[in-house]
Amino acid sequence: MTIRIKICGIRTPEIMRATLALGADDVGLVFFPKSPRSIGLSEAAALAEIARGRARIVALAVDPNDALLDEIVRHVKPDILQAHGNETPARCLEIKSRWGVQVMKAVSVGTAADAELAFDYVDAVDMILFDAKPPKDATLPGGNGVAFDWSLLQSVAARLPFMLSGGLNPGNVAAAIRATGTGAVDVSSGVETAPGVKDARLIGQFIAAARGAT
What we know:
Layout: E1 4-8, H1 13-21, E2 26-31, H2 41-51, E3 56-61, H3 66-76, E4 80-83, H4 89-99, E5 102-109, H5 112-116, E6 127-132, H6 154-157, E7 162-164, H7 173-180, E8 184-187, E9 192-194, E10 197-198, H8 200-212
Parallel strand pairs: 1-2, 1-8, 2-3, 3-4, 4-5, 5-6, 6-7, 7-8
Antiparallel strand pairs: 9-10
Helix pairs in contact: 1-2, 2-3
C-alpha cells in the first residue's frame, strides 16, 4: 500500500520547495487568523503556484463564509478545501457544488461515537480527515500536537477511507499507520521547531517513516 502524505501549514517558498522535493503528495495552506500557520491570500497564491502540478493544493479554512471562499478559490485555486470547523454535511455539499472544489471534512475524535459521525458526511465530501479533539483550553481546532487513541477508529476503519491527523510526528507515524490501516496521513506541528516554523529535516524524516511503515 502506498501512503499518501500531506504536509499542512506551509508558510514559506523555501519550505514549499523542500516539501515537494522530499515527495509530499499534498500541501496545506491555512486560512485561519488564530493559527500561527495562517497566511494571506497573496502569499498563499505564490506558494500554490510553486506546488501546482506537483502536489495537490489543500486550503484549510474554519467555518468559512462565502466571501472568504470566493477569495480563496479565485486567488489560490486549490484542489481541495479542508473544512476544519463545524461545517454541516449540507454546507460541505454546497461548497463542492458552488465552488467546484473537492472537500475534505475534518472530524475531531475523542470517543468512538465521534468517529461514527464521519458517516454523516460520506455523501457530501470527497474525503474524511480524522483529527484529535482539541483540548478544552485550546484556541485552535487542529494543529495542537495532540494525538488521540487510534483504537477509537476500529469500528470505522474498514468501512471508510480516511486521512489520519492529530499529533503525528516522525517518531509515531509508522505505528499510527499500522494501528489504523490508514492510506493517508497529515502532519503540521509534528514537523516544526516552533509553532508555525516548519523544518525540512523533520519533514524528510516524517515522509521516510510514513513510506517505510508498510
